[in-house]
Amino acid sequence: MKQAESTKVDWVKKGLSQGFSSGSSLLNDPALNKGTAFSESERDALGLRGLLPPRIHTMEEQVARVMENLARKPNDLEKYIFLISLQDRNKTLFYRVLLNNIEQLMPLVYTPTVGQACLEYGHIFRRPRGIFISARDKGRVADVLRNWPFKDIQIIVVTDGERILGLGDLGANGMGIPVGKLALYTACAGIHPTSSLPVTIDVGTDNEELLKDAFYIGLKQNRVRGEAYDELIEEFVTAVQEVFPHALIQFEDFANSNAFRLLDKYRNRACAFNDDIQGTASVTLAGLMSALRITGADLKDQRFLFVGAGEAGLGAGDLLTSALTTQGLSTEEARKRAWFFDSKGLIVKGRKDLRGHKLLYAHDFDCMTDLAAIVATLKPTGIIGVSGKPGLFDRQILETMAANNERPIIFSLSNPTSKTECTAEEAYKGTQGRAIFASGSPFGPVTTGGRTFSPAQGNNVYIFPGVGLGAIASGARHITDEMFLTAARTLAQNVSQADLDEGRIYPPLPKIREVSLSIATAVAELAREGGLATKEIEGDTGRYIETLMYDPTYHYDC
Fold first, then answer.
1. Together in a domain, 244 and 116
2. Would you state the pLDDT for residue 357?
3. Which of 300, 303, 138, 140 is nearest to 227 (CA)?
4. I want to staple 42 with a disulfide (CB 3.0 to 4.6 A). Which of 38, 75, 418, 545 is the partner?
5. 284 and 342 share a domain?
């Protein structure tokens, strides 16, 4: 944010007047380092003369050098390591590179490459990032948080590593997720990197491979559960409110058994949300709204089959229900538009194994376990894959969807790419090019039947940065479901007719800052209207928020 940038400039000005202990200490500070871009006057004032080669490079030249070196890396994991190392050396340059090349680099700093990085986190470990809070820190969590060097924290992304993407329990290796998410907050919504904090709560892991791995970075013990787990989470939330009282908390990649109940417990006690539940729901609903602009149909006339009944699927069902009730349907009528299939079959009233949230979507229907038969019988207008089961949408299912719908809606949202229910090519070719398709991980253009389609990526990055920015700008006390419904509508409105003509139901990623600003503005205004804002915004809300957005450029020329 601009305040953090001002603080950084003031710090450097102080250094100019008092002198740094050494120029090398400045070069080793990633928040202040400019590398070969330090000017002649800066080199003299800051004791850098001779510590840098004499040629001064512009930031544009530095960006070009980074991209050239990146292209030389042999695989995506090596590219990920290279980019993270740049972030450790020169944060400003890292974010400029990322912002200038967001479409190319987002799959490297986040999905799908971050999944592989988390799998191998202990083996590629270079230096610590973020705050690790372990089960051994019980009783001193606030003291651990105070060890973080930056004090004006506005947003925290926290995971316990139990359900990393579709990869399962990765324990402390899951730190790659909050680190990656916060990089996207900065690149896509302009939240200053010194205002964000990635946190991993390490309560152990039940992943036997990790427990046997000599390079695993976390506690080598099985997961703490039950009362002891809840007490640690409670201490963490309480400590955040004490140490960083203005921080928004984003829960990320918690297992189904904890995600819903933790959200329910803390959503009205803190400014908090769960991206896997609410962010995924919002981006999914936005995609459905855009898809219906193509078909010309009404949302209340659809029947959607969610394949997967975890956080993402049930969260999307809930937000879809909320959207339908605004169209005049009762909650019961709205839920009948959402059907769910889990690992044991169709979720119906006749099943005896259903618990918790799934019961809300148990319809009066025959028990069925064969997905292809369910698609043929229910005749859904859209199928939404959030199962983490690769290849689940096979040729038969895709052809059945095409037979029953002129424009079948097929969302294959599981991450990373290795877990997707079907590829873009399979979706388009299995429906003779008639599918309205979205995926969780990126796919390249597909040509079939003489047409080229640009697949949409239903990535939460379209939602959470803007929601977070709007909440921070307004000082929102809580994050509400209505905010995510508003975010979905705003995102859908940012899809142009040209995008739809190409089969794209989300805006191009290079527009992500514009999209995030639109969502942040809508969220901030909703917070004000709902009495949740603690900050008064004078004048135009959008223009004010835009002034807060961090722009990765160099400052403090002497």
1. yes
2. 87
3. 138
4. 38
5. yes
Which residue's structure tokens are 């959402």? 338
Cα–Cα distance for residue pair 176/81, rounded to 1 Å: 11
Instruction: Say whether 181 is catalytic.
Output: yes
Catalytic residue among 110, 121, 550, 554: 110
Full domain range(s) for residue 132: 111-270
Pick from 270, 302, 337: which residue ends a domain? 270
The DSSP H or E segment spanning 421 is: none
pLDDT tens column, 32-70: 999 999 999 999 988 899 999 999 999 999 999 999 999
339: in domain = yes
Please, where are the H alpha helices in 72-197? 76-89, 91-100, 102-109, 113-119, 141-146, 176-189
Whether 106 is covered by a domain: the verdict is no
Q: State the pLDDT confidence band at 18, using cuts at 50, 70 and 90.
A: very low
- Based on the domain organization, do 290 and 419 belong to the same domain? yes
66 to 36, 92, 98, 111: CA distances (angstroms) = 13, 13, 11, 21
Q: For helices 176-189 and 464-474, give the axis angle rounded to 10 degrees.
A: 70
110 a catalytic residue: yes
CB 285 within 8 A of CB 316: yes
In order of 20, 49, 90, 552, the CA distances from 46 in angstroms are 6, 8, 17, 21
CB atoms inside a 10 Å sphere around CB 359: 11
**Does the pLDDT of residue 307 top 90, yes or no?**
yes
Q: Which amino acid is at 150?
A: F
Is residue 353 one of the residues assigned to a domain?
Answer: yes
Three-state SS at 546: helix
Query: Could you tell me if 255 and 321 lie in one domain?
Result: no
Q: Which residues on neighbouring strands pair with residue 167, listed in sequence order?
A: none
- 340, 303: one domain: yes
Same domain for 190 and 255, yes or no, is yes
Q: How far is CA 290 from CA 298, 494, 502, 522, in A?
A: 11, 10, 13, 18
Amino acid type, 297: A
For residue range 87-119, what is the model confidence (pLDDT) as tens digits?
A: 999 999 999 999 999 999 999 999 899 999 999
- 537-552, pLDDT tens digit by residue? 999 999 999 999 999 9
Q: Which of 34, 79, 181, 358 is catalytic?
A: 181
Residue 198, both tokens = 């990635």
Q: Is the pLDDT of residue 497 over 80?
A: yes
Which amino acid, 82? F
